[in-house]
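Lay summary

Proteins are chains of building blocks that fold into shapes. Our project writes down both the chain and a compact code for its shape. Here are two examples, one after the other.
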Amino acid sequence: MATKDGRLFHARDSRAVLREVFNQRDSNLEFLSLAELDIADARSTGLCHKREETLAFNLAGPASVFVDGTEYKMEHYDVLYIPKGAEYVVEAGPEPAHLYLYRALAQNVHPVQHRRWKELKDDPSRIRLLTRKKVHLMFDVAEKADKFMAGYTFYEDRARAWPPHNHTDQEECYSFIEGSGAMQVYEDDEKLTFVKGVQVGSHVTIPLMNYHPVFSHEEPLCFIWCIAGERYWVGDKNKSFMDGTAKKVTT
């Protein structure tokens, strides 16, 4: 057998970088955590979360995710559900892939589910139209999970969330992936002190009972909303959210 050559590597040149963005230690959330994976021309080590289900969003170039050895080819804006206890490996070619890996504590094991953006983006059953906003339900009640609901919301320029809403049984994260704007998170009007500018790469955690409106400015914006808790979307549960007739909505 021929002797192989050694190879020199530097950590600064790593082609697969996994970053923990937040978890229960610092997020004020009970169930939800988030990591980001940047990968190009590389293969990750195997990952396995024994107590958490995972929801992966691909926000850049194509990537293959191998779940217990089965390959799922993720394109831009695709979503992949990975059950708790399953091992997964991510591989990408020369075009960089960028994945958000949301995790939520879970009790049950559900099947792997791959939801393709190109198949769902024009599906009227997955779209909710609000004033100057469009919501895409990428992982809805039709999918199987313990706690996850998730999708994309696209704002036109100079739009805002209306009416403000909060949840008694869902914690949430908003991850901003296009454009820039502002966001508030507050328990009531008297305590409205969290007012932050947001841009691509911003993640905002939303504990129970906090209102959480988003505002776009001179440009459109888009964010991922990822829920851990009871499985419903606010506008499907409370119709006054859809028609804007309520001043505030609590679900």
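And here is the second example, written the same way.
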Amino acid sequence: MNRELEITEAFVSLTDTVADDVDPLTLLRRLVDHCVSLTAMDAAGVMLANARGRLQSVAVTEDRVELTEVFQIQVSEGPCIDAYRTGHPIQADDLADAGGRWPAFTPLARAAGFEAAHSFPLQLRGQNIGALNLLAHSPTPLSPGDARLLQALAHTATTSVLTWSREPLRPYDIVTRTQAALSTKAVLDIALGMLAATAEISPAEAARHLHSYAAGHRQRTIDIAEDLVRRRMTPQSVLTPES
């Protein structure tokens, strides 16, 4: 199987939240397995924060990973701790150089056979809920492409875990969700028409204005579209950037 197909199948498996045999832990186990199979890393694990904000190990590819994760929790330092606290990826290509960074974690990780550690935050809508931890038996840098892939896999798995439902999807639910998608598209089309007519621009250019405004204000595009359609804001406010 070529790499492109493997990546595609990884994302498909992480978005399968309606199969009868899928639960959040299954999705997270898939995540760590994919992270190892698609990169040069040798092991992976996931930690999630409980209601008190304390991290817990929930999925690992091998027992030694869980050991390093539990130790990070105990000493309150390490790549996973930093990724969770800062919301940014943490990379240590060679743990031999990380003693000053994590004086307690580094010796134990190396004693467990790991010489590189990389961690990525698990986030949804700006809230950190945990971290993905990747370890290698030898000094191992991540390429920019692999780093982007790992963060994308982590984000996809996070979204799937937090939208998973214990209740099976019923035929009525499928119809309801399909109709909701169609209604959303209708609102979006009306909003784009309003912007295009106001500025005498194409729908494609109107869409660029709408997406840019939503991103700049950290809001969902559909929420801005609904505000336009319901006259809670004017097309000019979207079309004219704030100075």
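What can we say about the second shape? The mean pLDDT is 89.
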